[in-house]
Write a structure and sequence with these properties.
mainly alpha, 2 strands, Arc Repressor Mutant, subunit A
Length: 195
């Protein structure tokens, strides 16, 4: 999904600043679905405003005492009717396939190169991270008041994180044993090559 559509989606939920849009992808309701950087959000908002898909209200900011330069106005963006139509058009397009990008899985791909202690530490840390995410998601207040799509996506996210956590917990010992077995021939080969 392009950043312009992501911004329109956030603004469809209510007016927001660029900073608030970014926060919705870091810790808000969209944090587990997508990501957007400030470097992409602000140019997208500028383009959306030029095209009349969003409007903004500028709020002057006070000058900081420790600097001579004036801080730029804070812009509060809102979606226009044309923006709502553009969002609806984007929502009916066939989405791309989901992509999984994970440093954690990349590291586990080379499990045979890690010590059992390091593998255990990595997996246990990831399980603890999933526990924190699940606790936050389960504590989500007023979920019943949210639109059906938001509730559905929230439940989908819970199911994904619960299953990922369970898979790691249920299969950690198997990975440790198999990685150790895979590492033995590699270590023997290194010893032979060194002689």
């Amino acid at each position: 999904m392009d950043t312009r559509t992501l911004c329109l989606g956030v603004l469809n939920r209510g007016d927001a600043t660029g900073y608030e849009i970014k926060k919705s992808f870091e810790e808000g309701p969209l944090a587990h679905i997508h990501e957007a950087s400030f470097g992409a959000i602000y140019p997208a908002l500028t383009k959306l405003a030029e095209e009349g898909l969003v409007a903004y209200r500028a709020e002057p900011q006070s000058q900081r005492a420790d600097t001579r330069s004036k801080r730029p106005d804070k812009k509060h963006y809102s979606i226009t009717r044309s923006g709502e139509a553009a969002l609806e058009a984007a929502l009916v397009r066939q989405p791309r396939r989901d992509e999984v990008r994970s440093d954690f899985l990349f590291i586990l791909f080379f499990a045979h190169r890690l010590s059992p202690a390091e593998l255990t530490r990595l997996i246990d840390a990831r399980i603890a991270g999933y526990d924190e995410i699940l606790e936050r998601m389960q504590a989500c207040d007023r979920l019943a008041e949210r639109p059906a799509g938001e509730r559905f996506v929230h439940e989908f996210g819970l199911a994904v994180y619960q299953r990922a956590r369970a898979f790691l917990a249920d299969n950690r010992d198997r990975l440790l044993a198999e990685a150790a077995a895979d590492a033995a021939p590699t270590a023997a080969g290194r010893v032979a090559a060194a002689k």
